[in-house]
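Section: Multi-chain targets

For targets with more than one molecule, the full set of components is provided together so that the structure can be written out for the assembly as a whole rather than chain by chain. Components appear in the order listed by the source. The example entry contains two components.
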Amino acid sequence: MGRLVFRRLLATIPVLVLVTAGVFALIHLTPGDPIDVMMAESVDDSVKANLRRELGLDQPIYVQYATWMRRLLRGDLGRSIRNGEPVIENVSRRIRPSLQLAALAMAVSLLLATPLGILSAARRNTSVDRVGTTFALFGICMPNFLLALLLIFCFGVKLRWLPISGYLDPLEDGWPGLRSLILPALTLGLALAAVVTRTLRSSMLEALGEDYVRTARAKGLSEWSVIRGHVLKNALIPVVTVLGLQLGTLIGGAVITEYVFALPGVGRLVVDAVFARDYPLVQGVVLLIAIGFILSNLAVDLLYGWIDPRIRYR
Amino acid sequence: MAGSIRGSGIAEPATAVARPSLRPAVRGRRWEILRQAARTRLGPLGVLVMLLAVTVALLAPVISPYDPLKQDLGHTLGRPDRAHLMGTDNVGRDVLSRMIWGTRVSLLAGFGSVALAMIAGGILGLLAGYAGGQTDGFVMRLMDAVLSFPPLVLALALGAVLGAGLGGVVIALGVVYTPTFARLMRGQVLTITTREYVEAARALGAPGWRVAWHHVLPNAAAPIVIQASLSVAFAILAEASLSFLGLGVQPPGASWGSMINAGRGYLQQAPWIVFWPGAALFVTVVGLNFVGDAVRDALDPRLRK
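Its structure, encoded as tokens over all components, is:
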């Protein structure tokens, strides 16, 4: 297992180098002068010159890259040009709502998808199955922001059960905090639940056709014991794969969800930085998100080895 | 498919006579694919939705009842009635007309970005798989790097630096989808180049580009087409998301995503501003998914029952 971790970590190094190069290049893709794009026309020339010097944009590009990488290796991701604070501080202030949202959304999706996926497969071609597959199709085709507005309309505007925007920390404020996260978590969780339901159903169906299932049935086990003891364990591997693959979609969905519900998370920070044309902040946050994404994918890869010994020893 | 084209693979470089005999076989195969696609339960429904969307997009100037940009401040947030079948928005613009024009933006972005990704990814995958060695390593690590960004975050960052507008969004989404096609194409190339007909073509002295163009590409096309048909729906969703966030077509231009964003402040007084473009988006994406699934079922013999 240790060798597997080491090998996987080693393989991510060239990718990380290319990712940093890509993020560095971002600011140079801007048509025209990035300083002009970042600052209003009325800003004094000396202020612009200062910013240009501070960002190193007056240096040759290879010097800029070397300096940027040196800083990066020291953990310095640069500063926001709007509030002057280091990127790390901007992100660490916003990470908590994002992680809480992701955890709740994951909980919503698993709570919904596990019974629905199992029932759909076990009762194939019945009305339960049709409910499951329709739900999956609906969730996959429904844009996040539209679902968010639908939930806001039903539970916020019409029924007035839940707040439609804003954030309170559930760990500090308790129930009001949790209430502020219910609609965002549902928005993000339902889409994920759709994908998990579909995957769980098809992997369960595949496992149900295996010889060991026939053997289990032949020795007189009840259908639920067969599913619990033999089918489900084998059907979970593709679900983990899909959860891993969906991480990117989950992060993207979080950007939109945080935007719609005005949650002060990292996703909202990206959108705000993009519209404020705060390129150093965009670069820093995008790089952090990409590193987080790479590490989570690595974790998912290692999780396979843990769940399925056949992969570990390959 | 491999059967009919495999024959041509050997014959083609040597004689031109083999070519005409190939065509009816390929055409027959195409009909077979269409027949298969039509036989799936939801495929025809998806095609109907897609045809409707394409017709609406093409005929937008003719069928749109009003100018989509024309404001009527005396008739803001108007309920749907005879004059405005889907009501009016917060500055009195006709929702139906804006939705019709928005269809153009969605389809252009969806098909445009996937076409871009298909071409770029196809070329890169072909290059990587065919050249091998360091070129392969570099191209594929580059693709891994692109895949290391969550798609929407990458599109957002690229859209931000390329500038708001449809062009920026198409390029941004094209970049996001390129690695999928590059990986697929590379995998196909690696499998196909080991086949006997490619070896035979090489032995007959066909230059590398000719082998790639005439023998590898046609045989690698099926999975690429499947992926493309499945990707369009997601590209349309992604464009709508970016427009919703404020990138993409800029106001007062109409796109489904930006219409929904503009209407979200009026959910209580005028839900129709959000409802109609939302419904159009949802139905189009569902339809395209049906088409994608039907194409996959028809082209992938392993899935055929």
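The longest helix of chain B spans residues 208-245.
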